[in-house]
Amino acid sequence: MNRGEMIGSGLVGRSLAGVDDFSNAELSYVLAGAEEMAEHRERYASACRGKIMASLFFEPSTRTRLSFETAMLRLGGQLVSAVDVGATSLAKGETLADMARVVGGYADLIVMRHPWEGAARVVADYAGVPVINAGDGGHEHPTQTLCDLYTLTKDRGCLEGIRIALWGDLKYGRTVHSLTWALARFGATIVFRPGAGLAAPDHVLSKLATDYGGELVRGEQLVRSDGEGVLPVDAIYVTPRSPHQLAMLPHMSAQLELDRGVDALYVTRLQKERMRVDVGESQPTDYPVVDRQLLRTKGFEHSVVLHPLPRVDELALEMDSDPRSLYFKQAHQGVPVRMALMALLLGCVPSEFPLEKALPDDWRPVEHIDYAHDTGVRCPNERCVVNQPSEARYLSPRFRLIQGSPPRLRCVYCDHEVCAGAIATAEAYDESTSRRKYHSPTSRWSSFIRPENLLVFARAGDAEARGFRPSAQAQVSE
Amino acid sequence: MNRGEMIGSGLVGRSLAGVDDFSNAELSYVLAGAEEMAEHRERYASACRGKIMASLFFEPSTRTRLSFETAMLRLGGQLVSAVDVGATSLAKGETLADMARVVGGYADLIVMRHPWEGAARVVADYAGVPVINAGDGGHEHPTQTLCDLYTLTKDRGCLEGIRIALWGDLKYGRTVHSLTWALARFGATIVFRPGAGLAAPDHVLSKLATDYGGELVRGEQLVRSDGEGVLPVDAIYVTPRSPHQLAMLPHMSAQLELDRGVDALYVTRLQKERMRVDVGESQPTDYPVVDRQLLRTKGFEHSVVLHPLPRVDELALEMDSDPRSLYFKQAHQGVPVRMALMALLLGCVPSEFPLEKALPDDWRPVEHIDYAHDTGVRCPNERCVVNQPSEARYLSPRFRLIQGSPPRLRCVYCDHEVCAGAIATAEAYDESTSRRKYHSPTSRWSSFIRPENLLVFARAGDAEARGFRPSAQAQVSE
Amino acid sequence: MNRGEMIGSGLVGRSLAGVDDFSNAELSYVLAGAEEMAEHRERYASACRGKIMASLFFEPSTRTRLSFETAMLRLGGQLVSAVDVGATSLAKGETLADMARVVGGYADLIVMRHPWEGAARVVADYAGVPVINAGDGGHEHPTQTLCDLYTLTKDRGCLEGIRIALWGDLKYGRTVHSLTWALARFGATIVFRPGAGLAAPDHVLSKLATDYGGELVRGEQLVRSDGEGVLPVDAIYVTPRSPHQLAMLPHMSAQLELDRGVDALYVTRLQKERMRVDVGESQPTDYPVVDRQLLRTKGFEHSVVLHPLPRVDELALEMDSDPRSLYFKQAHQGVPVRMALMALLLGCVPSEFPLEKALPDDWRPVEHIDYAHDTGVRCPNERCVVNQPSEARYLSPRFRLIQGSPPRLRCVYCDHEVCAGAIATAEAYDESTSRRKYHSPTSRWSSFIRPENLLVFARAGDAEARGFRPSAQAQVSE
Asked: Which of A48, A161, B20, C153 has the most CB atoms within 10 Å of its CB?
């Protein structure tokens, strides 16, 4: 079995709830499949004959759903769909796990969109068939990212070393969250240019700083050094593959990257429907608009333009005739990308996809250990699936431990993080209550405790409620 | 042609609006087909090629609809669906009959869910193609019953002589109505354990007492004779196949059956959406819950657990890992059951289904004669299709005459019954008005009038309005 | 290549937004295909294998959508659908053009219903695949018209010379608008019998008077000359093929046609959902009802009855058993008609359809020149697609010039018209401002200006705002 076949066979039966579920080689193999599907659609017209895809959309969507459904039909498979299910089973009080077990007994593959963050992960855990996340709240949208990577790769040749600016609503736009992480993995430098109040959430940047090897420069008003730029960005991620990164201070290398301009603009609309307060009909006036004038300014002359669509006002209609605009092509390419992904997960790819270039290493982001202690920590994200009353009946909070000072716990479902307010060692449980101590989360004790024994408390009070007392040093730090 | 082929060919083109539309042999043959479909799915992958199923859901549903749709696709057929149609054609004022005639001209088979009781019967009368009732208000849900019978038969070997407890909302739960009648027909003993105020409706029990040959003991607080039981049941149906039934007084045989414990628990959720008054978010506190503790009590140690799903709180999540829990299997088995049913109705079964055991007799419940007189009787069920203004323009009340003292009229559409308040003979119409007499419904006259001549009035006043006068005896009885 | 093949190949890739998009020969060839599809369905069971139809319904519909979907499945094609999309993409602010480009990249054919008039035309302009209008507001519904023509042709043999009465809601009923124009093209005489306040809109009658060669007699209370008739009609279109038309005054030929009775009644329900003011539950009392009594009166004894369904009260249920009632047949025939249309547009007809009789000439309605000037004229129809804020960002008003006295501009999207309030010549732009003159729209100048130079202003003030001054004659006329 050659490399492609091995990767392909490793994907059979898997789910895609977040981009980091797949290694770089796996993601690349899906893209190679998309290329093949786009060029030789007729070869795969019966690949999924006899397979049924269930399309479960708990939020309204036309574009993404039709793209998935078209993809499955082009493979010769069939569809059952539940659209706008908000009002049906769940209204009868059913849990996601029950729904997953039932539908998993009908269909061969589930594609799901849901407003709760982490919902696709839960369904994948219970369905017994592959599950694809077609958007879970403001969390991830990994197949959109596959389309984005495919479009960029086809146009730019490769992702390594390119500079891409993420533009607009980086807070609520789940597509940019998945894309941010994927771009970092493939060695792109990322420039964040949010609208006012719409910066990328902490947990997205935090994962970027921790898991992918590059440098994140954030929290400063970066401007181009010639003082000209329309780019008041609020964060830059500089890939370790950047020529500047290793030799310099992070801030300097970020500045140098910025001065070189961007290869691609990834524009997003304001996700009004996820905002708490209704922002009314019109775009906020300071929402950054991409138009011909922008594309004439220095640093953007050679930028291609992507947009996950639908667009509203943030991308001028005059751009449609500009050869740098790739967004309609990007939408159409969603079909072969999803064909390749589904055929692979269903084990319906008869032979290896042809590979134009070697697959990358089987690289994945840093894996963090599971946090196995119950120290009363709860996911802070109220849209997380684990915080919904119906799901809390059977789901417990689950975290991974992100080591550091202070250590953090990252929710397995939605990637939001909790910073330690106090730490202790699990070995203390073997001691008498009077000798149990907790420490400041930034104290040197943190490095002496073995990771599997590290207890993380959100607040010192939670440690005390469990019979721990402050160590001398902890008392000082509070 | 052997027995199976004869039964199969007799089903072609038929509809299934209620379980009693099929004989016991026919129901059993569908189950034999389900067994075959489950074991040899690939044999039937093209059985319904070229056939189109219309799925018309006038009430929200995900589970049942996806099960039907999956079944049709697994047979190689195709789908057109109209989901949540409440707001479309009917809002334009169209009758069910018109809808049936139009859609019957498009599709080869119609699967319909509708809030009006008897709606599927009306559609079956007009569509010109087979119609399957996927739930009509609180009336019937016969394919759920087929799944239930299939699951029970596979697990218990046969239905004859088993004792099954129906649990929870027996009033609004249409699945238990169809199941009650079907279980009685196959010789099961049925224990009714409703939540407070949720007893099985009179018309369900009345049919049980009249049509299936066993004994119904009701209206008493039965408890187990050892005084222990969690079983304050409010009715028991003892099958004529029970060893106790013939030799004893009904109440004693019921008590003996009860003491033997139950083989199966059929749990249902509270059908909040059918209740008039909103019961709020939470289950009523006295709603009986099935959990491990219950399954440890005497009489339940060997009970398997079924549930038509979705569940809310009435079935503890902890039961999921119990080997006696059959409900997820039951949900999955809906697909082969519906495959077999649809393939048979469409005449797409190329050869006889293999039969593991002999088919039962071609038994049906007692058939009652059509009531052919217009004596002003109306169906008392306001959710009945015949009582909807749009349908009353072309549907007349239709009843069957249930002989007895007093005689009753049973609505052909929804099975609700009207007790005679006065009776007379149709021969009186040949007499002068002054000699027309009506009688007390429980009088001995009832047995002298030939059934086809028996006039049933809901109230004595209705008889008087038609020129009848009280007989001496009727005057006394009022 | 023979005639049928030539016409068939000329239809490949085309769209059908309005009936006048096809020539008479093309419409007839679709009907010949429908005949073939109805008689030999099995021959076409794989004709569209591998093709995907997107069904986009921005207004609720069951009947039309199921008819299209059934048709595509009967051809071996597949479906993706978006039903009730009102709340999805468009709610995110997307334009029709963007939606068209995206969905056109997924599917091979788009079937669309939308509340905005002209919406299908816009989608056809941008989708890159054939688009079929399944109803655009109160404007057109051309495939319903194809079904109507097919039903009439099959029953009456031909359309030429038949007299058909359009009955009921002629104002909001889009089906009658498309039908009116198509009947005129095929040489039928049309009698308009609206309910009170529901006369055919001006733009429908105006086009009838201008484009199809017959005589329109309107605005009078025509009654049958024997004084008997139930036909207080408000307009009659007399085809040029009528034996009376050429020899007589229009009003006399209309009267003679009227006295001959009608061959067909085309009944429509009140389109409550398009009316501004809610008319409540019941039909207005003066809405004309078609029942057996009507069908016994003079002039209707041999009338067949058509109805696009759904019906409410305007067509009595008692008519269902009348052999002259064709409406259920008409509904069923929608499937083969749509099969033929879609197979032709997709280029999936392997050989010529058999032709029972010669195809008619390749006749089309009069073509009017494009109006290429911006004189501030706007489409007066507030439901027109060009007047929707989201679409006005990229669509400009587009008109055709209807010559006459006064000249008129007809909206390319919705067929509504603007009468000139003033005219001028574009050559005036070459002159100094002080010499630019405008004229009365009915003045003799109109005939001196070459059509391509004719400037049309809605009001004299609009001309003045552009630097024109009244000519002496214009001053007089105002």
From this structure: A48
